[in-house]
From TrEMBL, chains A, B:
SUPFAM superfamilies tied to this protein: lambda repressor-like DNA-binding domains, Periplasmic binding protein-like I
Name this protein carries in UniProt: Transcriptional regulator, LacI family
Originating organism: Palleronia salina
Pfam families per the UniProt record, alphabetical: LacI (PF00356), Peripla_BP_4 (PF13407)
Domain of life: Bacteria
Amino acid sequence: MGRATIHDVARVAGVSLSTVDRVLNGRETVRPGTRDRVEDAMRALNYVRNAAAANLARKRDFRFLFLLPGGQNTFMRMLEAEVGDYGQQFAADSVDIEVRTLPPFDAEALQSALKQIDPGSVSGVALVAVDTPGVRDAVRSLRAHGVPVVTLVSDLPSELREHFVGINNIWAGRTAASLLGRFCGRAAGHIAVVAGSTVLQDHAERYLGFQQVLSADFPHLVALPALEALDDAETAERLLSETLAQHDDIVGIYSLGAGNRGVVAAIDRLERSPPTVLHELTEYSRGWLLSGKIDAVIRQDPAREARSAIRTLVAMSNGKSFHRDENRVGIEIFLRDNLP
Amino acid sequence: MGRATIHDVARVAGVSLSTVDRVLNGRETVRPGTRDRVEDAMRALNYVRNAAAANLARKRDFRFLFLLPGGQNTFMRMLEAEVGDYGQQFAADSVDIEVRTLPPFDAEALQSALKQIDPGSVSGVALVAVDTPGVRDAVRSLRAHGVPVVTLVSDLPSELREHFVGINNIWAGRTAASLLGRFCGRAAGHIAVVAGSTVLQDHAERYLGFQQVLSADFPHLVALPALEALDDAETAERLLSETLAQHDDIVGIYSLGAGNRGVVAAIDRLERSPPTVLHELTEYSRGWLLSGKIDAVIRQDPAREARSAIRTLVAMSNGKSFHRDENRVGIEIFLRDNLP
DNA sequence: CGAAATATGATGTACGTTCGTCAAAACAGC
DNA sequence: GCTGTTTTGACGAACGTACATCATATTTCG
């Protein structure tokens, strides 16, 4: 009582194996009448192609290249680890994944890495995009050579890439504001915002979403201009400390980038720390949640993103559709009590 | 440049294909020296067994049985749908899933359904457990016959089942309290709690966790005794309305069970509605979040639970290890802004 | 009607693994 | 060194699909 095979389909449709194969893979012209008979048989038998056998016979070999920012950014390191991990698992499906790390925030490096890619030897590329004309151009050229490109975490204009794997950062910013706004209560004042760099689309979008909600729903709270800490802890600490010193009415802190060790260091020097929301769940932020130094963490799950990116690339290389829902990455909220 | 195959391993190890096979599948006795040579070769070549080919050759056919409570419970219906959905996807891997719904909370029905299972024709069972001696016994007997058993949503003592797929409800309750406590601000008063039935283990646990956090971190907030609404909307509306009329200092509402349409109906009649937290994301709760009638939803993702249960069963049937992390189900928090 | 064009069938090999059978080799004990 | 046991090798058939080649059947059109 196993599943139906193409043999069964052929038998039921009253045609040969070859014809079923032709219909199934759109190989040569098949007369409409014959095609219908085959398709009817497939429906009647509830035929599903055995993907395992198909890939085995195809002897497909995929090589995907992941371009990730290097440096200390914990999230990116987790993402790198997850991609490697998942690569192992997908190895069974003859998928080979190479991860290359590049200097962070370095558009030139990204651009030249993209240009060095030989379109013939790579079946797909995933990158954390830095949106500059040079990078756009390199991506365009890759795609022109038939290499699918997926953006990870930080996006490019949608016409440039096949797919984006990551969260909607405007909504992430909105979520942060909804949380922080409620956590702050009725007290009026300023919110200090620490960002990485405005060159990154995702950081700009988070700030935008944050302000949207703040001005609409919590007009007594005003976000200060984002501090550009370049994902560096020391810079973040310095800038935030300065700001905290300058303003005596800061009632909340939102850090939308990395370098959070600096943010917490600055908070630690305060007598009473205001409600604080950060991004990304690391061993540090987990500890800060548990110790009550911060109140909430917003994250995108690196494991999901890795999986989603690889699956998307595989699906695209197979010319198949893929479940959007399953591959969607959500905006997760963590408090002390729902840590994974 | 493809991946190494058993042929490569055999060549490098200087043994025959058969011997590699014997080592790989622990078939017959292989002398330790030979086994080592083979294992060294596998390591050297970074050999990974082609699971697709293996399953193809094995002609494995898995049949998993899911026993879920029937009835109106939206969450269970979503879970049922997801299991079916995922079953389709796994069909490619020759996994066949049958879902059987039983009268909800009916230990007798569950027990007899379990006893009717023919261990020979089923490779694994997942069930939403009702913990009674009869059910325990039926589960024990199934496992004794070599059928892996996974509990779903509601657990059994851990020595009885192979694995539990679901959330920790104490922590779910704690999460609710952490959110609601912060949302309520400094105002002192009571929190109204609506439950399904205190006889249900998971509801009791949520209430427990809720109170833990409330008394520890928000002592100015006091949870009223849980209203037993029996997951019925009308009952919930009546009980909650009564309570709201009796107490003029209710500053927050926590509904930890089903029947939330009634809860919201009661809130709707108030002039100013207090912060409200519910469980499970449905089309309704989603609407209430967007319209601002409620403030947060806590959920366990039915899609993840379905996937996780199936994956766990597949992995166990293959005698393979599985990624605990990947299969873990988290306690998710949704606000208006991070809805999926 | 017959030739050319088109559609279909028949057949075989391959993918990487499993599993069975049988023969050959290596080893043990005496 | 012979026998008996254990270990290994050689081979082949399957699993369900892909793909190529060649032969034959069917249609189309002048």
